[in-house]
Design goal:
The protein is an alpha/beta fold and 1028 residues long. Among the domains are: 160 residues; 112 residues, no CATH class; 152 residues, 3-Layer(aba) Sandwich (Rossmann fold); 121 residues; 131 residues. It is built from 37 helices and 29 strands. α21 links the parallel β3 and β4.
């Protein structure tokens, strides 16, 4: 956790340093006259080294005197200075030389001024260069120094002390920040001998961060920053004079100064000493002879292909289950019994129950035998409505969202869809008979040979005698254990001869448990392929599972302990999510970024860094792939029950996070010092709530009944939060406590109310996720004044305010520099002003409202899309209550667009040419009559880069694509609910790049043509689903 703690502290220090720029900016407002003398002071200040604070004070004394003014006028005559002030020769010489060097290097000084101004521009969101020229730079710097500590209020001696003190604080903060950044490099892969030191680093980093965060809150410096920005963009009160605004800013400035209070220098220097001492200790240890442990952790030295290889090998590696698969498939396909038959696969966690069930589920004889198949995961905690809806989605396409129907309505529709058909249903990870009983009533028993597969860790005694055929899983024998390990580590290649014996030892010590073998194999994937390295792993892995299966956690913990430090916090964070949960990768990435787990350097690419971290964890077999996007990227990921249990255990042990057990009736004692809290209460009887004053993350997935969410937030006293995920809590009004969480970077919540404009003052917010049932809300957030905002998503169509910026020169001044994704906004929000305020936008979701359609603004607004030069993903849905053909001649898309989704646009197929020429388009989804008409004839050379194509719900009958010039790169084609399509064009089947063809709920003739392609083309995988 040391890496995550230090990375987080670095971000806090960088944030605090911004306030020194704020002080300068505020004091600019107070300057009224020009005085070149003070400009020279700041030049000397800039030129003074860390060891010459005494000379700095001397210079301020000299320059502040009448004689000093004459010295400046006579070009810093060193002899004159010595004679007039009788300075010691050495000190006078140093001061004189420094002044002369400044005069000779005036050009460099002016460049430094430009650099300083550029830093201010970045802080205030200016996107382009804004350089001050000529004498204006001297004027700019003079204002900074003249009012640096309020010269009008303080005497000369106080001014001198304040300048030097402020200089020392800024210097030490900057040095500490640099030391910590260099420490991150060392911490990424330290020697195992450094593990005792890591706890010290974590404690120092957390303590320092808490002190800064609390000072920011205590002194209310955020309002000062917000007010200063409001003054920059225009008069906030409308009638107040410039002098009134200046005085108010000066009053707010005092709060900022408190950040650098009397003990700041001592605290910073002490922290700096601790960090340097720790860093030197680590360097001394790492300078010793290279050990086997170091080689094991050196993932950077491994072939990069190994990282991508791990997850692929795991998906392909299934051994020792052929006999089990044969016996189960024979039972499932035998003549129909007198009633619905249930088969239960029983075995300990990690033994491969789900793997076996999936292998049976996808077996060719099963696919041919059953009319429809459905899979659902029950888990320890479940909602009957979720189970039923998941089953319904497996056998048909619901025309509504889950929240639009009751549990009974969904169950009845499921019953109708299954009635008269032979079906197979798998209920995976069943912990209680109650889940099966809740679903069973909606499954028809027509004696047509339908079957049910349950997987469970134990025998379900409550089943009826006729429902008790069990299949008991067995541990792998030695040969199969080694076969599995070899497959995961080497794929289709063989293990080098010199590693075979030690590899078999490692496999044997996993005691035949597939999960343990796969996880240890993930560790070997990141280990040098040398005999001494593998032997060390063999010595570390011991058999804990002969009598107590739960000791498997100790074997799994070995892979966790061998993780690079940059990945440990990321992996433990997965334990916050519910058991058997499909974790959305996009959400997980946003959370990791907000927590500060990532390398703080590449700001613009933080999301990509997070995705690389996740790929690394998947490659180590510590995380499994859940679902993939249409283009093949990981959409959701999962954590095995045992691995989640390990996450929760280790997270609590290291005070990283506390996860409430499902059965707990309240908070237990001894958890006040936890930094993260994840709540999973089914019910609660003990309403006493401890305060979590140090907590920086709060996630609530279930609160139970009888507890007020408002009271919970109030009692917890979560002042330092960076992450607030209350998606599953329901408030009748906006929780005002949120407005006090000035460090907040991520917020996700469910609302039935309008958001207050004051939420814009949470200037550190990076991600805002809103789910609400209200219709077309107007979001009054001043998003353009939130410089850290990166992702803004609302589940319902929202209207954005236009940026209200006074002067034209400031049009982009307050643009969120890193705003990357935005959804879902109305067409009428797509104005030139809005798009100009988000120049970095990459992903956009827009939806046409009824008002947009009636007023006819859609075409005009869509013409503004070309302003988003960096947009690569667009989801565009039109008003669905009309089927009129659209005329979108002004639909102007950015040329670099890579992914496009259209819904309900009712365009004629002839307009497809406008999209076919997008040179970078790789993914195209056409949903819900995006195009209409009976015939689509492609032009030659169309869609030169397209890799994935989805056509869903259309009246297309004839699709002509006879030339191989069409779709030269197409890899994946999915046709869904194309009821009128007669056949798939023959030219599609001839595409050499096509690897996956899916036909779901289409006409029988289209399905037959797809199967014909599958029989003729060797490397083409064909998947069909039918409700016939």
């Amino acid at each position: 956790m040391a890496y995550a703690a230090v990375a987080s502290l670095v971000q806090t220090l960088e944030y605090v340093l911004k306030f020194s720029h704020l002080v300068f900016q505020i004091k600019i407002k107070r300057a009224e006259v020009y005085n070149k003398r003070v400009a020279e002071v700041i030049k000397l200040l800039e030129a003074t080294s860390n060891e010459s604070e005494y000379h700095l004070e001397q210079a301020i004394d000299i320059l502040d005197s009448p004689k000093g003014k004459r010295a400046i006028r006579y070009q810093y005559d060193s002899g004159w200075l010595l004679s007039q002030y009788q300075l010691p020769r050495r000190e006078g010489r140093v001061l004189s030389v420094e002044m002369l060097e400044m005069e000779e290097q005036k050009k460099n000084i002016l460049e430094e001024i430009d650099s300083f101004q550029a830093g201010l521009n970045v802080f205030f969101g200016v996107t382009g260069p804004h350089i001050i020229r000529g004498d204006a730079r001297n004027y700019f710097l003079w204002q900074l120094v003249r009012t640096l500590v309020g010269e009008q209020r303080l005497g000369r001696n106080q001014l001198k002390k304040k300048i030097v003190y402020f200089y020392k604080v800024t210097r030490d903060t900057t040095n500490l920040c640099k030391e910590l950044q260099s420490l991150l490099i060392i911490l990424d892969n330290p020697s195992n001998k450094c593990l005792d030191i890591l706890k010290s680093i974590q404690d120092v980093a957390y303590r320092a961060r808490d002190i800064f965060d609390l000072r920011i809150i205590k002194n209310q410096v955020e309002p000062a920053l917000t007010y200063c920005l409001r003054v920059r963009k225009g008069d906030p009160e409308g009638k107040s004079s410039f002098e009134e605004r200046v005085n108010r800013i000066f009053g707010l400035e005092e709060r900022v100064n408190c950040l650098f209070g009397a003990n700041a220098v001592k605290f910073l220097q002490k922290t700096l000493e601790n960090v340097r001492s720790i860093k030197n200790n680590i360097k001394e240890i790492n300078s010793e002879e290279l050990t086997v442990e170091d080689l094991q952790l050196g993932s950077a030295s491994l072939d990069g292909s190994h990282q991508a290889q791990g997850s692929t090998n795991q998906e392909d590696a299934v051994v020792g289950l052929d006999d089990d698969t044969r016996r189960i498939t024979e039972k499932l396909t035998r003549p129909p019994p007198f009633q619905l038959e249930i088969l239960t696969i029983v075995g300990m966690g990690g033994i491969g129950k789900t793997t076996l069930a999936r292998k049976v589920f996808g077996h060719c004889s099963i696919v041919l035998h059953f009319h429809c198949r459905a899979w659902v995961t029950a888990s320890q905690v479940y909602e009957v409505k979720d189970l039923l809806f998941s089953l319904l989605c497996s056998v048909s396409e619901p025309t509504y969202e889950k929240h639009e129907k009751s549990k009974e309505d969904i169950g009845e529709e499921l019953y109708r869809k299954l009635k008269g058909r032979t079906y197979l249903i798998v209920m995976d990870d069943l912990w209680s008979i109650k889940a099966w009983n809740a679903v069973q009533g909606y499954l028809p028993d027509d004696r047509k040979g339908s079957r049910i597969i349950l997987t469970s860790r134990s025998i379900i005694t409550e089943l009826k005698p006729e429902e008790k055929p069990y299949h008991f899983m067995r541990l792998l024998d030695r040969d199969h254990s080694w076969e599995l390990l070899e497959k995961v580590v080497f794929g289709r290649k063989s293990c080098p001869h010199d590693l075979v014996d030690v590899g078999k030892q490692i496999a044997d010590k996993c005691q035949g448990l597939p999960l343990a073998i796969v996880v240890v194999a993930g560790l070997l994937l990141r280990t040098m392929r040398r005999l001494d390295c593998w032997q060390d792993i063999a010595d570390s892995v011991r058999s804990f599972m002969r009598n107590d299966p739960t000791n498997c956690l100790d074997i799994l913990a070995l892979s966790y302990k061998k993780l690079p430090n940059r990945l440990k916090a990321c992996w433990l964070y997965l334990g916050a999510f519910p058991e058997d949960c499909d974790i959305e990768v996009q959400k997980l990435v946003h959370l990791w970024v907000a927590e500060g787990f990532l390398d703080p350097e590449p700001i613009a690419d933080m999301e990509q860094v997070a995705e690389d971290y996740l790929d690394d964890l998947i490659g180590r077999n510590l995380v499994s792939v859940g679902k993939r996007n249409f283009d093949g990227k990981v959409k959701t990921c999962r954590l095995h029950d045992f691995l989640r249990e390990l996450c929760v255990r280790e997270a609590e042990k290291e005070k990283f996070m506390y996860v409430t057990p499902r059965g707990a009736q309240g908070f237990r004692t001894g958890i006040r010092d936890m930094y993260r809290l994840s709540i999973h209460f089914d019910s609660i009887t003990d309403y006493s709530v401890p305060s979590f004053r140090h907590a920086i993350s709060f996630m609530c997935f279930s609160l139970g009944y009888g507890f007020s969410p408002d009271l919970l937030l109030l009692e917890l006293q979560l002042k330092l939060l960076r992450v607030l995920d209350i998606y599953f809590l329901h408030f009748d009004h906006f929780p005002i406590q949120v407005l006090e969480m000035v460090h907040l970077r991520y917020i996700a919540f469910n609302v039935t109310y309008e958001l207050p404009p004051s939420m814009s003052q949470l200037r550190n917010l990076q991600t805002i996720l809103i789910r609400g049932p209200w219709e077309s809300p107007i979001l009054s957030l001043e998003y353009w004044s939130m410089p850290s905002l990166r992702h803004f998503h609302c589940s319902v169509v929202s209207h954005l305010k236009k940026p209200t910026i006074g002067r034209k020169s400031f049009d982009r001044l307050f643009a969120p520099e890193y705003l990357l994704s935005l959804s879902t906004i109305s067409f009428s929000s797509c104005t030139r002003e809005v798009f100009n305020s988000m120049p970095q936008l990459k992903k956009l979701g827009i939806c046409e409202t009824e008002k947009d359609y009636i007023t006819g603004v859609s075409s005009e607004c869509l013409a503004n899309l070309h302003l988003l030069c960096k947009l690569d993903t667009l989801k565009c849905s039109f008003f669905r209550e009309t089927s009129k053909t659209r005329d979108l001649c002004r639909f102007s898309l950015p040329y670099k667009l890579k992914k496009l989704t259209l819904s309900w646009s009712y365009l004629p197929w002839g307009d497809m040419a406008s999209f076919a020429n997008l040179g970078h388009l790789t993914v195209l989804k056409l949903k819900n009559f995006a195009f209409q008409g009976p015939r689509w004839e492609l032009n030659e050379g169309a869609f030169g880069c397209l890799k994935s194509l989805l056509i869903e719900s259309t009246d297309l009958v004839h699709w002509e694509a006879t030339s191989t010039d069409h779709f030269p790169c197409l890899e994946h084609l999915l046709l869904r609910s194309c009821k009128s399509l007669e056949e798939i064009p023959y030219g599609i089947g001839e595409l050499p790049t096509l690897s996956l063809l899916e036909v779901h709920y289409c006409s029988k003739s289209a399905e037959d043509s797809a199967k014909e392609f599958g029989g003729q083309i060797e490397d083409l995988k064909v998947v069909t689903r039918s409700d016939i």
